[in-house]
Amino acid sequence: MTSSSPWLERAAKRVAHAPIGPAIEEFGRVRTIGDGIAMISGLPSARLDEVLRFERGQLGFVQTLDRDLVGCVVLDDAEMIEAGDRVRGTGEVVRTPVGPGLLGRVVDPLGRPLDGGPPIEAVAREPIEAAAPSIVERDLVKEPVQTGILTIDALFALGRGQRELIIGDRGTGKTSIAVDTVINQRASDLICVYIAVGQKSSTVVRIIDAIRRHGAPERCIFVIAAPTVSPGLQWIAPFAGMTMAEHFRNRGQHALVVIDDLSKHAATHREIALLTRQPPGREAFPGDVFYLHARLLERAAKLSAERGGGSLTALPIAETDAGNLSAYIPTNLISITDGQLVLSSRLFQADQKPAIDIGTSVSRVGGKTQAPALREVSGTMRLDYAQFLELEMFSRFGGAPDARVKAQLARGMRLRALLSQPQYAPLRLTDEVALAMALRDGMLDAVAPDRIASVREALPAWLDQHAGPAVRMMESGGTIDTERRDLLSSAVRTLVQAP
Length: 499
Known about the structure:
Strand content: 15-25%
Shape: elongated
Number of domains: 3
CATH architecture of the largest domain: 3-Layer(aba) Sandwich
Distance between the termini: 105 Å
Largest sheet: 8 strands, mixed
Structural class: alpha/beta
Helix content: 25-40%
Number of strands: 18
């Protein structure tokens, strides 16, 4: 017997036990390919959203099912796909990696690194589509999300589990508000997921660099679908980012998702729908565009204690044309979300930043989520500002206003200066309470409006030095007792009166 006999015996056993019989292999053929859409024939068992694999390894997912053709959205480079190529079904849906290994990384919607780092170490790969929590699985939205922007925290408070739309014309600071909110979470337990859909690479680089310089990038995930990638990757990006955030929410943690922006996502959906020959509706959008964004944003929620008590807060961004809030996509998103921050081109051009229009903005959760100390000192701020704007408009017609109106106009000018805030400089809760208290108690009445910015800039270090116990109590629970409130008030008064 030769030395190779044991190997021959093992091979003979494998052959003897190998099943012999006919095998069925189902595959289709690419009929047409173009603009990231492949029309495929010969896959009778294909299902909606099923992942298909092309002959050269590219992936796509089923978007439409016709009698003889399957409309497939390609997720990879479609240039190497040709008519006649074989296509096979995988029986799977689109999945993305989840887990702590994504924190601090820049990835595409499929979890592939874009930052030059090592492959993602994921704890699992979850479907990008998931059912929203049911009503009984949700809890009340009552915990605040501190944005660090006084206009928002004092007038339009956000809560954990809320969906607040940021909407306005191009170049009015929508992304800046979202980025400042992410930066302000450097001192909180919120995990942030920033999703860029069709944004310019230079803009995305600038945003990531700002968060790395001013925020806590080690607790952020950046999901990027550039305008140069396939429409399929842009389409799945918000869903993939939501899945990444849900992993933390479902484990009792808290997450914040910024989607920048859903107007481009809707345009991508329209493009895919028209290329796959779906019937167009209003503004050429397919009829399911409302359902598309509703099922996405409904996944943001505050879970009940039985489900772990985690939360997922969504800040979707949308763009308007000439301030038209009644267009199709804006009205859809306004009806889906729990409020909207409307940015005004007129205010932006007047150098009032953030350019939030208090007349059309609203938070449908509102004061229920506001920190108690801030709610106490900012109760009438929105009404006072609205009255000031009206008085200012009427005062332009001339006339001699009485002393009371002059005082109200003077305080309103100081309130407007107080609400104007530079980018990348979010305020702590203590700073916001101190500024609102100073305005309410008349401490700023003798301060020139152009000096308020310097007071705001010097305030954090001053309070740390002269009102440390009040700062620590405020940051720990959002409340303050009488003794520490008096200490805070005294420190602010001293700063304001300093030459």
